[in-house]
Amino acid sequence: MRPDTPAESTGKAGNDRPGENDRNTSAAPNADTADHTAEAARLERTAGLYPEDAEALLLRAAAHLELAGDRPAATALYDRLLATAGALENATLVRALKAANLWEYDHEAEARAIIDGVRATAPRDPAPWVIVAESLESHDELEAAHKTFTEAVTLLLTDVPEPPYATHPLLFGRHRVRRMLGASHDDWDALADTLHSLPVSLDELHDPKRVWSLGSENPAELQAELVRLRAELGAYREALSRPFPVAVLHWPAGELDELVAAYADLATEYPSHETHLATIERSLRELAASGTPNLGIVTGTVPSYEAFAASEGSSPSDTTLLPQYATTLAARGRAVAWPPQRAAECWCHSGRSYEECHRREIL
Question: Could you name the CATH architecture of 18-239?
Answer without folding.
Answer: Alpha Horseshoe (1.25)
